[in-house]
Fold these 4 entries.
Entry 1:
Amino acid sequence: MEMKPLTRVMLGLVCLLVAIWLVAPTLVVVPMSFNENKSLAFPPQGFSWQWYENFVTNPDWSNSFLNSLKVASIVAVVATVLGTLAAFGLDRMKARPANLLRMLMLTPMVVPGVVLAIGIYAVYLDTRLVGTLLGFVLAHTILALPFVLIAVSANLEVFDKRLETAAASLGANALTTFRTVTLPLIAPGVMSGLLFAFATSFDEIVVSLFITNPYLKTLPVQIFASITRDADPTVAAVGTILLCATTLLIGGGMLLLGRERKGAS
Amino acid sequence: MNPKAQNRGAAIDLEQVSKAYGAFKALDGVSLRIEPGEFMTLLGPSGSGKTTTLNVIAGFTDVTSGKLLVGEKSVVGVPAHKRNIGVVFQHYALFPHMTVDRNVAYPLRLRGVTGAERERRVRHALDMVKMADFGHRYPSELSGGQQQRVALARAIVFDPPLLLMDEPLGALDKKLREWLQLEIKRIHRELGTTFVYVTHDQEEALVLSDRIAVFNRGAIEQIGTGRELYDEPATLFVGKFVGDSTVLRGPAATSGGETAIEISGQKVATAKRLANGGKPVMLLRPEKLALARPGAGNDGRNRLTGRIGEAIYLGSGSKYEVDLADGSKAIVRSTLEAQSFAIGDEVDLLFAGSDVKLLADDDKADLTLT
């Protein structure tokens, strides 16, 4: 149907407004990170790189960044392996028990973060896991697993299981079939699960606030602590760096996926 | 790969093979011997057990009871990936993330064939199915017929002594199907391996096979060459499933060596009788029936009155559907020289008693036809 010019203009305007509304908070952060004064006032005044410098040189910031990187990397790998195996197992189970188990594994997504955090904290106090790498990895894996499960399950749903029968007829045992046929074909799901798991852990704050201690802080915890203590524009610098990093990561991933699809089709 | 050095193919023996899913018997005591190098077709309607039989041989389905030997060795309990049997599926089942070359090389990789030897065998297999120029394409870049030829190359590249094909041409259009049938026949001749082919298309079965096993309701009704099945059907089901046929049913009387059936007051007879009892019915092939104008001279042949219900011009002749007085239909094929009739014409249907196949009535024969 042909749209009237006026309708088209109105539609464009509304879309633009919604888009601005969605990205505005993100875009506020970028100019603030170049503020000359130690204040989070917007609009910022002057221009300086000092907060970026502070992020790199101040051990409070750089350590928490490295901690987050370490935790998120381990969580991404652990959650991806477990989530992929779980998705594969559920896919091969009878529908009823599979759905029950799936719901159980997805609960961390719907249970309020605070509730989860209190439970984890209580258990960690007894087991001395507060402020440990293992503690962070275990807690974040619980939160990241559902994302991997969902991403991989979606891929398995459209995966043609008859290809596995074909592989068997050609001489491949179950493990070889999984490695050479199933896994390559569900790889997009596994990769996006990995990214989601990494991101989930990297910016997790609620549970982290409970299980952190002065010896092990993740970046979100450090940001929160800093912003509640004083108005340090370093948080804006960190935010800008993260914004650039995630944009590159997601953009690169999408480019890679697009190329893959083209090759396969 | 020296064609002469290839094995002649494996024999297959099924002895009283049954497969039950709960109370439902998908296979009910199937016994079948397939000779080395033979082209055997398993023919039957859907749900008749032909595909289950193929899956049992391939190892995709376990048997509930019975013996299964491939190459004179029992393979019951041997998993599919250890059976070394080539399988071609109706849905091609090519790996979409691999090129044609990599698809065909897949079974060779698994068998540790490397380098130039692998390259050579992939070439040879693709040459055989005339797909040598498509090695670098992905399956999604090929037509259905091309994909199926690649799947065939992949299934024969590792020289299996047995090749199973599950309705491989089912998804293709008629012209392509007929051409690929001839290709498959040629490849069978060149390889000399045993082929087991599943189809519900009786014409396809007749074109391809050395012998045909006709399945119905989880059991084999008859095993024989196409000519045997057509000329001497053992059961009413086989007679109806293989080729066109007319079935005459009615109150029957047997006296001496003669059997007569009454159809709406008209009696037809044949000098035959059922050996094993049962209610006799007459089965007639279309070319054994003749049409004449009503009341035309009596030559001692059986005669039934009817009316032309459908007249189909086939080029090489005509095919008529004749509505008989009892409401049943007769199918008549007449040659070009014969008289032609129009829809609605009253006709006499003529046939010799010696051309009648006398078979036991079987209500299962109708139910499974769709």
Note: Chain B has nine helices and 21 strands.
Entry 2:
Amino acid sequence: MIEIRDLHKSYQMGKNSLHVLKGIDFTVKEGEFVSIMGSSGSGKSTLLNIIGILDEADSGTYTLDNVPIKNLNETIASRYRNKFLGFVFQSFNLINYKSALDNVALPLYYQGMGRKERMERSMYYLDKVGLANWAKHLPSEMSGGQKQRVAIARALAADPKVLLADEPTGALDTKTSYEVMELIQQINDEGKTVLIVTHESDIAEMTKRIVFLKDGQIESDKSVNQVRASSYV
Amino acid sequence: MFNRDNWSEIIAALSANPFRTLITAFGVFWGIFILIILLSASQGLQNGIKRQMGGLSTNTMFMWANSTSKPYQGLPQGRSFNYKNGDVEAIKERIDGLLYVSPRNQLGGFGGNNNVVRGTKTGAYDVYGDYPEFILQQPMDIVKGRFVNYGDIHSNRKVAVIGEGVIRELYLSEEEVLGSYIKVQGVNFMVVGVYKSISNLGGNAEEAQKQIFVPFTTFQQAFNYGDIVGWMAITAKEDRPITDLKQGIFDLLKQRHSINPDDERAIGYFDLYQEFKKINGLFSILTAVSYFVGIFILVSGIIGIVNIMLIIVKERTQEIGIRRALGATPWTIIKQILSESVVLSLISGMAGIIFASLVLSLINWGLEQAPNANEIPIVNPSVNLGVVAVALIILVFAGLLAGLIPAITAVKVKPIDALRVE
């Protein structure tokens, strides 16, 4: 599903160049559940952003579902993001003047789907994350866990190949974190490829494979026995 | 492009901060409001001045005979001459583009002796010999009876049309005017009409009500003028300024009266068109100033929109980042921002137009109700519909422009940078 070869990325900080990713080789197969760990500054978010086509690598190759991602113009990049990828962010990134339902419907709107079908599908995914009753509420009327679940519904709405989550539990308390992870585990159980970035080891252990990043390089990459989040709740 | 979804996106974005949207909209609203009010005011003033001229045909020249100032063909300078009936025919025949050529003769005037007698009453009035067309050149209200007609001209009828001022002095209040007789320099004329002057121009409104009009042919016969024409009122067709035609008339008359072609003084004239053009020039300046001021106020309103759109886009950088992460193409984003600014400027512009028309109709109503409406030099302040349409088109383009800069700025930011903004 994801194939990365010798990926390099540096940021220009004034006169200094900051080499963030120093040759990453990384493969993810369909249906995998991978967490990327590392201390801050290890480049884990940068890697996720490149995988999410939100950022571009300086060198190396990146293939997503057999499509080479290289030198895309912004229009095509937007289409790929819409078609292949679902995003979940640490700070939820819901649009605060839109209802939960409208937020979920947004990627479908950008696909050009008709209003009726769009609303039906959004409602289906909202129901899936257990928030069907909150469809008409604004994000400001919801708790953090509810917001993140809306964000997950939104990420799933367009039926992407890969779900990318950047610190999905970073802004949540432990109990809510586990509820959200339980939801993500269910999604993976249904066969969706999931990649999350986290620096909490208990969260990482709920995935099936942990990749450690240190100073822009992969330090370790091992499969783990998945801890079910439901066992904590 | 504007389906229900786009509309709800636009409305949602604009109503996210209603106060700011309102303040921005007010800039454009005020701009177009002032533009329309200014233009209408200048139009109203123009209408008012025109009404005060009493519908005078402005493409008109009055022409009389002076004495020559240059010798020619053995004739001395200082020779006086008169226009003749033949000159009128010649002008009508030879000069193209003329509407009316009215020969006129006049008795009395300028505080002359009493020249009109009715029973025991006498008065000094201007008595004019005129053709029927004259009333088209200098309109007046015929309040009773009729004006001179061609029947009068052809049969030299001794009939007269008199002013209300004349009636006040020669008649008792209950006396029947039509059919009565007045004696002008010993000749009896039957009164067939009463007129009322409608021009307020020149300040001699009182004098203007004290005139007597008789048929031109009758005048010549009754007062021993032979075929002498005192002066002429010549009106040209609408698209042919009399100012351009007058030299041809002068040349023709100089030739017929053996006047030196270089003699500038022999023919006296007053070119109303030229004078009116000066007033028109004033109006043009007034209109231009109105446009100038109005458009600049409009521009400042539009700058306000650009400003606010820049702020809005800046504030929504993160939102735009989210939208792009979810698959919005740059064009989708640009379209969204452009539609927001166009809708904002268009709605506020239309509100300005509506408000301005309300104010205008209120002013119109007030003017009509005013007891001295005739003295107010503002009539029907209004604005050309085309101007309003152009203003709206300008607004749409301005809205596009106002949105374009921030939209391009918004799209230039990489989605990841946009997302990082907190």
Note: The first helix of chain B runs from residue 4 to 14.
Entry 3:
Amino acid sequence: MTEALLTVRGLTKHFPVRDGFRASGAVRAVDGVDFDVRPGETLGLVGESGCGKTTTGRMLVRLLEPTAGSIEFAGRDITHARRRELRPLRQDLQIIFQDPYASLNPRHTVGRIVAMPLQVNRITPPGGIKKRVQELLELVGLNPEHYNRYPHEFSGGQRQRIGIARALALRPKLIVADEPVSALDVSIQAQVINLLRELQRDLDLAFVFIAHDLAVIRHFCHRVAVMYLGKIVEIGDRDDIYERPQHPYTRALLSAVPDVTQTDSSGRIRLVGDVPTPLNPPSGCRFRTRCWKAQERCATDEPALVPRDGGVQAVACHFPGPDGQDSDGGTR
Amino acid sequence: MGRSESVPSGEPDRPEVPEQRSGEDPYLQVRDLRVRFDTEDGLVRAVDGVSFSVERGRTLGIVGESGSGKSVTSLAILGLHNAKRATISGEISVGGRQLVGLPEEEVRRLRGRDMAMIFQDPLSALHPYYTVGRQIAEAYRVHHPKAGKREARNRAVDMLGRVGIPQPGKRYEQYPHEFSGGMRQRAMIAMALVNDPDLVIADEPTTALDVTVQAQILDLLADLQAEFHSAIILITHDLGVVSQVADDVLVMYGGRAVERGSVAQVLRRPQHPYTWGLLSSVPSLHGDADADLVPIKGNPPSLINLPSGCAFHPRCRYAGRNGDRSRTVVPELRSAGEAGHLVACHLPADERTRLYQQDIAQVGVAR
């Protein structure tokens, strides 16, 4: 197995909540998350709102300061690296944002937006910055002659391509993509997914791909981590997660997706209630309040993320697998 | 119209109407609806000659991308367009009453009572300053001027309970910010249904929600429809939601209807190249995950400067197949073979079937 490009251990982010001037608790947005990303690999982080997937992504590129845990990128600990130390690493580690309207400066031309990472890092590519920017625009399927246009002259899908070109400017090794297609229309979404897949293959990029849409994740990722209330509940290869989900939450999530090919929804697992508040998550297993398999033990022991049958798929559940064989359970 | 005074329990006086299309007139009939906005940049033809109908107890899904005119259509039905800005022509008949040209005051009386809307974003549709219960009670009292405060309150609490909000009496006193996203959407639905409307328009009702909560809300809408026997229009961009909830589908593109029919007809035996494009560009949980998606090339059209002829022709793979017709003649919606299935496309029917079998049926979710 190749060495990991990104190693995340026990990553935690708590946002303090103040009641007047007194700290009165913390939103436990991310609460001890472990995963690795190998070079050229795409890892999907999927979950519902409030599960901590975006917070995790922002910590990876150090837009947020982790409360605890460690992030190791290309062999270096970047958990608390300072700005100056981070600068050379930022070249290898880029982010694509969800909203193609808010993430581009409306007063800058496309050329300037895409050139910015080069200028900030004082890099002059062979042939000059303009030539490189035009190559990048072409790479993401935009007309290089649109160099002097402003973001408002482009549609949502095209703007997202500009954001992608900017992320690629420094030839990164890893891109964190936070819901890169969820603001786009269906027909445009497919264009952008295909573009990202193509770039991933051609440039051998690693991705941490954050999305709430399970079908989008399935079409893009090699491996998938399912998050719930700040924890990873299940992680594994794409086919294992989609064909043989073990955690009750993964199963419920997959069965809740309305699929065009299905008209019958009778076999669906129906979860009751909403996700509890991360301010005061349930004791033991955080999913137990909505889980149909929950037993006494789930309220007291927090299940660890353990590999199933020595494989690569790991599940944090006392009673994983299909219904009806609950009794064997996990051993710890 | 045989409106019963809203009886909370059971609706015993409503006759059992069979599932199939019966002899009764559809509750909502829209004919040749056109909505135009005069802007500085030019005339926007947001809706350009759309016709459809919805019977009681049935759900019509309106599908399209941004700018297709789906939301403008629903706002026109509810009479929510500013008369100074929008020019509306055509016919909209709700329960036999003609709405286009009706004085604002009369439309207002129908709105909320005979027809109601569920919006996408419940946080901006609910007033943050008033308790949820008070807003629902007020919606009831507007249309039941004789109802006292207590009666309106009881009705609101009852509705909150009926949409699955636990402890409705306590929740009545709370403000929108104290509700979670799913609970807020339930409260919105309670408000829309408080006057027992015969027509409910839900504009992307679950788009802002998580999938597990979306499943709950879709179930709730289906249950409430079975109970109240209302006609529902569900506006969405999500073909999966339509497939699961709707009986009929209307596909819109550039302000026009391009295909119409039952869910089975439009989603399983689609006839319009745009519908094909939508189906093959949606990522699915089934099928080959490694295969590339098949997107529709280009971007949705500008409504100010709509392409000539068939508005879809610049993005259509098959546009050149019948000479210049796609570029010059606007295709009319006509029968696609099966009863009730209509399509607006110049391709001859047999060629469409052949192309579908050959190019589309094998790939993606259109399988």
Note: Chain A has a mean pLDDT of 89.
Entry 4:
Amino acid sequence: MTMNQGSDDKEPRHLRRILAIWLPLAAVVDVLFWFLVGPHVPPGDLTSTASSNQFDFNILFVIALPVMIGVWVFLGYSIRNWSAKRVGSAEPKGGAAARGNLRAQVWWIGLTTVIVLFLAGFGTVELVIGNGSGGGEGPNPAWAPTGANAAELASATWSPTDNHVLPVQVIGQQWQFTYRYPTFGGFESSQLILPAGTEIEFNVTSLDVIHSFWAYQLSVKADANPGVNNIAYTKTTKTGNFTVRCSELCGIWHGAMYNYGKVVSKSAFESWATSTETANASNTANLAPYASTYTPDANGAAGGYYEDGTVTPYSTVEVYGAKQPAS
Amino acid sequence: MSKGGRLASSVGLVLVAFGLVVVAVATLLTPGTPGGVVDFTKAQPAGQPVNLTVQTVGAIGYGPHPTWVSYLVKSPSTGRWIHDTTWQLPAHTLVHVTVMQYDSGSPLRNQEWGQVQGTVGGTASLNGKSFSVYNSYTGNGVGHTFAVPAIGLSVPLIGVSGSATNVCGEAPCTQKFAHNKITFSFTTPGVGEYNWQCFVPCGLGWLYGNGGPMSTQNFMGGFLDVVKS
């Protein structure tokens, strides 16, 4: 048998038949997927990176679906037409034609190579124009939105009327994330509240082991390493709720290391931030000064007793079980 | 062995293996400890506040890990101290918590946990004196915290003086030993399992202080098993 050699007048033109089945089927499935499933593909459209990632996933799907359908159609066609029962022989027909079809092989290899290379380029472009596409870029991001550098300054400000980047620090610790807002006095909170329509700069770090900040619906994911400021960007586009999970196995309560955040209107965010700044002021005064990273040390590790009264200075080295300084 | 015998043996082995897997998974998924669950749902009429009394000790003093720091809870039925950190509470009910803190303190790794959060009124009481923030860099520092992250509850448990001559070295501790009494109230959420933990890395000698008793059920963390009231 041959795919499409035309050497045997009785042999149907199989490739044309397969194409006739595959092309309309793939086109219909792609269109149905794009319009019916595409808008619901995770992670949604709460942020620019989420929308971008959803678009990327949908592109991958509409390219992969025809390939998958093509394989299935070919398999089904082969079983239907070239099974031993139908051909009438338990042995495959021999001869040159059984060894392969050069044209089909070239098309298959060429087409899939083009698809893979296109997707590699597409993914790279999406990563660059998406400012890292929500992924942690380390302390010196290669791609950053305009104004991001200013957000890292201690004097950075944010208000509903400006378009400044809002820096938010994510602090991982066993076993909860907390969040600091340097543009609002550096207060710390267990809640992650963000303003809509705002470029956000997440500065992710850890006070102990490696965690990973995964704000699923924001499409932001960045490892939280002790001593490292891992920066990730996204831009909120509308109000909504999202879930934060630790995605790095970090100990006994790793499974419970999650919380829920909200993207609210700019005015609602400002109201929450200013009221929380005021309410937490007395505790904020006790916090370590805002910094991109914090050095975990022996303090708090039950390293020893100390007397009543003044308890400074403390060890600044990472030694556990070290004797605590006397008063 | 006959074909039937081999088949029966194989089926039997598969069933045994399946049973072991089921038991192992069920054991992992079932909250609780060797001590079981301490039931606080029957200690008072339905809808009435629950009184939960616990103590924190620097060293449990017995068992496989006598040097480990630990929580203990007072049984609502017998009044005895129990080494169990899974507590069954009625849903949507006010809980009055009393913590007898017998351990010393230190500065918090993250002073965020020095702030009282999620309690009724946003405050707690230290030896009868109300407070909402405790600077762990002063006084005796913070020994432990009681926190239920899922409901935003966190209370610092202030440490006792390490130089006290009557520091308790073996649980259960009595009030003749140096201690701080911390009280606060919170309302239980809906039905569910809520983990609670200490946020002071008090596992001495373990990486970042969060191993040992911090990573073993029945010592510095457990569950609130909230059930229908």
Note: Helices of chain B lie at 3-29.
